[in-house]
Amino acid sequence: MSKAITRRALLRQAAATTGVVVLMACQPAKPAEKPTAEVVQQPTAAQPAPAGKLVIDFWDPSTPESAWAKSKKAILDDFNAKSEKIQVNMVFKPTTGQTQMSEALLTAIAGGTPPDSAYFDRFIVPTWAAENSLTDLTELANAAGIKAEDYFPFAWKEASGWKGRLWALPHDTDDRAVYINVEKAQKAGLDINNPPKYIDEFDQWAEAMFEYEGPRLITAGFIPWAQQGWIYSYGFSWNGKFFDEEKQQVTANDPRIVAACEWMASYSKKYDIATIDSFSQAFGQEAQEPFVMGQLAMTYDGDWRIASVQERYAPDMEYIVIPMPYPKDGGRVATWAGGWSLVIPRGAKNVDAGWEFISFFTNVDNMVKFCVETSHIPTRTESAKDPRFRENKWHAVFMDLLPIADARPPLPIGQFLWTALAEARDLIVHLTKTPQEALDDVTKRANEEMKKYQS
Prior knowledge:
Blueprint: H1 7-17, H2 19-26, E1 54-60, H3 67-82, E2 86-92, H4 103-110, E3 117-121, H5 125-130, H6 138-144, H7 153-159, E4 169-173, E5 176-181, H8 182-187, H9 199-209, E6 211-213, E7 216-219, H10 231-237, E8 243-244, E9 249-250, H11 255-271, H12 273-280, E10 298-302, H13 304-313, E11 319-322, E12 339-343, H14 351-361, H15 364-374, E13 377-378, H16 393-401, H17 414-429, H18 435-450
Helix pairs in contact: 2-17, 3-15, 10-11, 11-12, 17-18
């Protein structure tokens, strides 16, 4: 018999997700949804099902009028047209505040009235699985011939990271790399055709592109903690390990992660953190975004920037994209990826019908359809072969990085660890704590939190 979801577990799960507020507050605004040129149906109210069809709900957090929601609705309508037995209704249920967590979904699961399918942030799958809030899909996937090899490794790892069982079907994704302003680089006398590969060369490029008018900073060559500059971002490039699988211990104080944070802090010291903080206050969003405005000559950011920022607000700007440079001694080409998935909540009354829908929604063709229409990246390796994902030569850089992309450790304390690392980054770059001190503290607290899930 499956374990009941207790009130204590419900409260613990809700408390865990509050850390995502820090996650979202520290990041740039959610990428703007690119209008799709293809006409897709506007989501509408649920229609009565034809006689004899089983009606199930699909909960989605998208804004109903968004391109994302319209593309999903078109796939759902296609399923309804093809299925003789199942009718799926799309129900819009926004996430809570500035988080990726849905209190409505959590409450429905605890009350025994969940939907039969839901669109779900893959990063929080392990947390919800550990709290017994998701249906184990392992046997359903095995029967359908869906396997790890169908997906990029990071996506399957996130979906199956708790107890080695499959809790979600991966859908879309993203990854990260360095954007370089060609005009700024050429003005600094740098060879744009020979961009840096190693971190020492990268630091030289950054230094060359810092610009001042008298004492006033007008262009920063690079700010390690701007945009997607998280500890994960550089910890992976330094080849650090955030979790020891054998010992089941968080290892945020891995010497290579400490070294990556020391590199971040070196910019605080060299370019003066007070000056950078003051300079950063002028950073805006969208058309006023710092890379677009020339305030940042290089930035570490996601693939979404191409469609949501560069093509929309700076179509004539020349830039290149390169993998994040890394230390010659022991570093590696790295990036990390996140994204969304489809799940069947624990307690769903129609698991087989929910599975039929989510496996249809995430098949090769439908994944291509959604990702092309919304400027996202697919998690299925076969879907990623579609040539449209490489039409933009700089987007092709992100596609090339997918096979080696890392996932943040798929842990039940994933959100706790993210928040702790975000707080540590702030302490480190403001020189309040040394990297060793800050990461020792994160490691200790995270492992205390892990004990709640270890028998």
